[in-house]
Amino acid sequence: MVEERTFGTTPARVTIGLIDGHAVTGYLARFSPAMAELQLVFSTTVDSCDPFATEHVAYVGFHCAAGQAPVLVSAGKIELKAHIAGNKTFLVHRADGDADDSLGFYTTPSVSSSPFHEIFFFRHGVLRLEVNLPFGEMLVREGVVNNDYLQQGLAEQQKDLRIPIGQILIKNRMLSEVQLEQAVALQKRRGVRMGEVLIETGLVTAEEIEKALGEQRQSGTRRIGQVLIDLKLMTEVDMSTTLAKKFGLPFVNLEQLHINERPVTELPREFIAKHKVLPIDSNAKTITIAIADPLDIDTIDLVRVFTKKKVCEVVATESQLTSFIENYLGTVALEQATTARCG
Question: Cα 14 from chain centroid?
């Protein structure tokens, strides 16, 4: 779960952005994303107003100290465009490993003119997240094409700027059409919300999503899909098969699948357990993973970082995935211990 912020004896100056586009500035004594309400005061000691229900809050911006500008640290981070309910857009930095949960995530501003040193975005207030990179650089980051090929393609593009960089890379055989299609498909998934997908596919209604969001805010830990399942508004298999079909991914029954135990060593055991990702096969260039949530692009990115390979995905139900990961890690650990004793 994302961490709570406490401010000692001096409340923090913040701006609360509401999903209707309005914003209110005041002071908070503490902040936790799991709070049902945020109690804002208009001085450091008195003059409170009616509390704001977090279901109506899109973001909380924590102000810089007087006379200070935000510290812009981009090393090891990616720049995002966060499109927020109320027709606002923020440029922010976020590291792949930053704490995250179903309620939202912390970021730091990437522009020196920002009044904030930190911003928390509630997921229900985020309309879309975009990685703020040119498409060519995105292809390099995704591991689809190397930087030398990109630079060659960009040099050729200068002759005719109307030609998309992807077409140039394909023409010069630096990139295949399949690779380009996969990169574009993965990028389109960024910032898409689970509820929107489930409504679009007809699995649940907007009213059912609103009901589930209310339940989610009370629990503070469950993802929206799990809440819908717990409310018996859909089954786990229905959700998994719908997500797989939506994003053109195979849906698998792990009981009927041959799993290669070799690729488990390519990812840290703690990573596999934390992110609920099961490596099921690999070769010199590709690793195949089973996941429950195709919208968890950050995890897919991290797998690529750890393995330096192209990542292929299949979808499995979360309960089956959890069970298999526990058994899988236990079996591999036992085999490694036996091998070590025999050696």
Answer: 25
Q: How far is CA 307 from the centre of its chain?
A: 19
Residues 6+ apart with CB under 8 A from 75: none
Give yes or no for a contact between 110 and 91, defined as CB atoms under 8 angstroms apart. yes
CB 211 within 8 A of CB 228: no
Q: How far apart are CA 190 and CA 183, in angstroms?
A: 11
- This prediction's pTM: 0.52
Q: Which amino acid is at 165?
A: I
CA 71 to chain centre: 24
pLDDT bracket for residue 99 (50, 70, 90): very low
Give the C-alpha separation, 40 to 60, whole Å: 11
pLDDT at 320: 93
Cβ 51 vs Cβ 38: under 8 Å: yes
What angle separates helix 177-189 from helix 297-307, to the nearest 10 degrees? 130
- 228 phi and psi, to 5 degrees? -60, -40
pLDDT digits (tens, 9 = 90+) for 134-175: 666 666 666 666 777 777 777 777 777 667 666 666 676 766
The answer to whether residue 340 scores a pLDDT higher than 50 is no
Q: Tokens 């036996």 sit at which residue?
A: 338
* CA diameter of the chain: 72
